[in-house]
């Protein structure tokens, strides 16, 4: 990095907010698939810091990559070349929780779990939940419109964002903060920044509508004979307003993970040819016995947690899948939205009769979001097969009226398939919006579009 540029940033944010050594964690995503070459990381502490940084970068045609917790799976938060990384970790103030409106006001660099810890004393919680809750940041969640485990009940994150503060590429601080549930005053600009993956500006603050912590929760773990049985259970429970999460797993991956746990703690022995469902219900008053009776229509094998520790263990069996797949080799990870009854059909179209490398499908069947993981022994083999797999997979998803990205976003990974997903006319509109906000294309280059 040229000394003149570094000196300019020192005047803006101070030496303590500049990092030039040991940048591996900022240049590399957590799957080690995407690696950048940034030589400079800035850690602003205020919105004014972000404003000055972007204004200078815009004037001098310097490319930047906004970075939150760097927990993404599509390479959206790491540099491709030597872009300047703007890490939001130090902007981590929680300002207040308004008990009248149930809205929390926070900077964008707060860890999701820390927000929940803060809200706990008020008996409220954030309306979305992710496996990366202990490291992902609020701004990253918003800029990717994160999905997660509770969409089946609470819907998408964007429905709970009441207001934002965003710094535009020219340095202007756009005040879209708002604590009104009803605000019918023209185009809702904040929605443009939700899910835009840091390509239009940097989110620095947010107003988020929170939800009450339910008085009771129960986790049910079911063993089923076929995927058709999974769909039958889904059809039954979708009518129950207390269903908070509905997660599906193949027995193949659960069996591979058995050695991670003591055998006497496992709810089942797990069978390659069986299917498993985790259902969580939550509310102010639960009828657990009635729900159990309804589930017995589909299986005799049901585990119900007796305490919080058991609930956490059952959830761990589901949440550890992504990590365990990563330890098997080099993994292609896909998350697509399609009708839930087409999950098995889609996977069998990609790899008929279970041929090919080890692969499994699992995920949020309750909201139609399937995760497909394919493991390769080498990165070279992965790259050789990647385009062929994606052309087939994404073409099938499109034919079903689905989405090539249910919750992970586009990032570097899927940008070349955006025309397939959106069509030319929509894509042209997206490019026009990008040019309007970021005419010099300094924001997160070569991501999303």
UniProtKB/TrEMBL annotation:
Statement: the UniProt record of this protein carries the keyword S-adenosyl-L-methionine: no
Coiled-coil features, chain-numbered ranges: none
Family membership: Belongs to the FAD-binding oxidoreductase/transferase type 4 family.
UniProt-recorded Gene Ontology molecular function terms: FAD binding; oxidoreductase activity
One GO cellular component, as annotated: mitochondrion
Cofactor: FAD
Record's keyword terms, sorted: FAD, Flavoprotein, Oxidoreductase
Ranges for domain FAD-binding PCMH-type: 34-213
InterPro entries: FAD-bd_oxidored_4_C (IPR004113), FAD-bd_PCMH (IPR016166), FAD-oxidored/transferase_4 (IPR051264), Oxid_FAD_bind_N (IPR006094)
Pfam families xref list: FAD-oxidase_C (PF02913), FAD_binding_4 (PF01565)
Record-given protein name: FAD-binding PCMH-type domain-containing protein
Species the sequence originates in: Paramecium sonneborni
